[in-house]
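Good morning,

Both structures are done.
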Amino acid sequence: MALSGNRLDGLQADPRERIRNLALTAGLTTAMITPFAGDGSVDYGRMARLAVHLVENGHDGLLVTGTTGESPTLTDAEKLALYSTVLEAVGGRAVVIAGTGTYDTRHSVEMSKKAAEVGVDGLMAVTPYYSRPSQAGLLAHFLAIADATDLPVMIYNIPSRTARLIEAETLGEMAQHPNIAATKDAVGDLEYTKASMELLPDDFMVLSGDDSATLPMMELGGQGVVSVAGHLAGRQIKRMIEAHRAGDAPEAWRLHDGLMPLFDACFVEPNPMPTKAGLNALWEPVGDPRLPLVPASPETRDMVVAAVGRAQRL
């Protein structure tokens, strides 16, 4: 994909080089919520406004239709329209990544091809959930997605949601595919992260899939985060990342500690319920989640608002 007239010109053919040029793993990427109107339909206008808002607040990348975007409740047509909406709003100013993975390999491959046709910069594929495939099945699933396009693919490893861990050895084997160029590590075990890094190529990128683990993971060699709290404190999270890169560990840890109440508040109820409550209270109306998720409680909303206030004073 060539985006003329902007900082994403001249992308390299090699997916890992493309990732570096796109800044996909160079800092702050947020997994966007999906705004809904009062009748439950997707609010595409609000999605465009949110994308611009995030980019103006320090984001290098935007992940569309991940778990935070309530992807299980979205139709294929809604997903493709969301990719187009975000690309039109911020294409050329931030990386746009499409969450195309499901528990159905054929469907994942089909959606990856369609997302590539829309023009996204990269793909994210989650571990197949519910069916609990073997490690051999996981390998075959992700290789099929990686073979579907020439886009960089990020593997999303989150056993708490999928009931299946991509073992470090399996991830290392996946990383030999030239299109599999990054992982979003939400395993919740820094020993696993360290062990997997030892098996990955030097140019393979590791992003934290958990806001609270961003700084600890960067100290092990990670490159950044796919955030949820970035909706509400993007500038502060970006400052934490930049402080770490500059070698200012005390400042990075000061920001990390100050952001922890927000990181915790964003998950006190199922994601993205707290984040949507925070955006509704502090930004613009983004609507309620789709069932089976429900609006966050007033107590959770107040917790998020208070944590954002603390983050803004950092």
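Second structure follows.
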Amino acid sequence: MRCFKRIQAHLGEGWLFGKWVCYACLVGLLVGAVAVLFHLGVDWAARLRALHPRLVWLLPAAGAAIVLLYRVCGMERDRGANLVLAAVRQAEPLKLRTAPLVFAATVLTHLAGGSAGREGAALQLGGSISAALGKGAGLDEKDERIMVMCGMAAAFSALFGTPLTAAVFAMEVVSVGVMYYSAMVPCLVASTVGLLVARQAGLHAAVAYPVASAAALTPVAMLQTAGLGVLCALVSILFCKAVHAAPGLYARYLPNPLVRAAVGGCLVLALTLLVGEQTYNGTGDGVIRRLLAGESIPAAFLLKILFTALTLGAGFRGGEIVPVLFTGCALGTLAGPLLGLPHEFSGALGMAGVFCGATNCPISSILLALELFGGGGMPLYALCIGVSYMLSGYYGLYSEQKIVYSKFRTEWIDKKAR
């Protein structure tokens, strides 16, 4: 009898394994395809604005149009990526209409020159589509949470080409200190399938930012890297505080959302004209490559923070992750050489360190460094990331993120990121 029960238990586990592999493949295929279209849409908007720089004058109108679009669709109070995190932790419902809305609004933001990324928007795309699939399949509340994480992982991977980072980030970002290990295989399968879909479309054929000048592991290099990690922590706090403060300041002085979006567009436009070029508009991926290639722009990290806070705080849509990477790269290429680190390597360290400080996801950040920059200098990347994580306090990009354990002691704190 006991043997029979054990066989039944193993058959049940095998059934669950097969079920989740099938669901994860479906999510990876569908979300991966949508994420590829989203990637192409944002790239099209960026190229069109590069050909016609005067499109930046559309910023006030674009901001108002985005607010109107969300109002017409009954999503004016949408909480962006925070709602996806809440859907995983508290099973809050995600509406399928979120996907086309954030798709259109993010493309419009980039077309007009708002400073935003796309990976944060991708989390909403993937989360809302996979949640709808889970409901359609009749999954219960707990299984729906895994489906949402699969969608997050597939979209992140298809957009960024980092399957390991995407899978672990989906499990790590919601509750820092508690990993949702039950979602490991589904997230890995979904993220890998999403990447394969993206590669079929011609994306992510190689390492995104290959770094050939990694510093050798020495005591001096460790001290230099730790020093840069301290700076990464401070800048990540500044980034998070600016992004969180901007919506409140806008709402305080401009309570009408339409007026707020239009004025925010005017402010970003005025800053663009003041700078004299569109270095800080859009994602800034091209600028990251210039910085890693040897350029150094002294105030770039501060200006990117300002542009991003003004854009997202006004009601434009997009993500924060690529602006975070831009900020980290600008900081690293400025401060790293002063500390004695190679220019290209210090830019990569800054990207990983500020990403960790802003997201509170150290394991994902280490995997991000591996997948974005190659395997050279990994102990130093990990050191910079660890220092940034520990010293960045309890600040974070996502207000729905919970930090479960203290960063300084082995004790339970369970507080939301500030």
